[in-house]
Amino acid sequence: MIDMIVSAVDDRSARGIAGSVSRLVSAGTLPAGTRLPTVRELATELGISPTTVSQAWRTLARAGVISPRGRAGTFVLAGPPASADPRRYRRITRSPGRLPHDYSTGTPDAALLPDIAPVLARVAAAGSLTASYLDDPVLPALEKALRARWPFPPAALTVVDGAMDALDRVTGVLVGFGGRVLVENPCFPPLLDLLEVVGAEVVPLGLDDEGIRPDALRAALEAAGPAGAPGGPVALYLQPRAQNPTGVSMTAARAERLAGLLAGRGVVVIEDDHAGDVATAPPVSVGAFLPEATVHIRGFSKSHGPDLRLAAVGGVESVIGALASRRLLGPGWSSRLLQAVLAELLDDDDTEHALAAARATYARRRERLTAALAARGVRAQAGDGINLWIQVADEQVALVSLAARGVGAAPGTPFEAAPLGAAHLRVTVGLIPDDDLDAVADLLADAARG
Predict the structure, then answer these.
(1) Over 60: is that where the pLDDT of 83 sits?
(2) Which secondary-structure segment (H or E) carries 234?
(3) What mean pLDDT comes out for the span 270-290?
(4) Out of 224, 335, 429, 431, which could bridge 388 as a Cys pair, Cβ 3.0 to 4.6 Å?
(5) CA dist list (Å): 200 to 15, 19, 70, 151, 345
């Protein structure tokens, strides 16, 4: 058995060992109840430090793949636990509401959201939209509006209850226990929590000002072997606009390069366009060049309001079909009343004016704060959207310094799929009133310097 594990390990890091063993368990090669070799035995066979194997075993134990039983040994369990604590998400949501000036939330400025009251009144006056449980899950008017705005012609399209619901459901279709997935680094913490819950092996990819670096993607694909090789990546997750936390927006040229690298590899691209209509960058998608392998998620919480709880998912027909079929055994569909509200908002002139004003305001706040921090010798980026990614000398010192002055920010560590080599904070610049930008810049600069 130890020879089988050694031959399956193609990456002798703790992450690589954990992923290889996870895949063996998922495939049934290591069935439940199997007694695994000791840390020292496997480390000797692999020619690595026992500490590395121990880290891999701890990762597998947290994921519910194995169970250490003291002197009796370590055994394979039946599979991952039914639930897990979203530890990264909890870390970035620890302070909301507890500080007078809380810029940790990543939420839009409520004052800049469109007024949905008139639209709600019009939809309510029209009466109930659901005559049968068997009606189509997406209102025809909304589907027509979404398809007209989609960055590529989707083979299938449906609506779910927000972007994270979409990520959860698409992941459930595509990513099996021990599956290898590619993600941006830094990355949205709830996504990392989700991937940990399903027992995925995460491979981080670095970013530059145009999105995922092609050299990082190429290296990850080459490390996985030829197309179709066992253990290759099954999905690539990215945020095409206003990436959270960096604000980077993918260019069309970069999307085309990534598509070229991914063609024929069997990797499904999952795009979370969470910023939507408050992003200043145009809608860009790998699906424009690789539609047969792209699932695009369009969120409306940042732009039209979190209470709508709606996101559209469109792309690969087999994925969307499996998602919709599984959903029949749960909620069935998203509220058609809310769908009608969104359809009206997408065709409403007052809403378009409100969105244009919000984009301009967010852009002004980003530009002013990044310029003010640069003048104070602090490195920060906020390319698009509502967040700012600021480099600090010490994360904890910076958080405590800001909290002492009544200011909340999110720690950078939960965003790291792998260590970045520098400490950061995420600040929701979109929530900072224009009159407070210079004062907040002073506080952030002091905190950044430690």
Answers:
(1) no
(2) strand 233-238
(3) 97
(4) 429
(5) 10, 7, 26, 28, 38
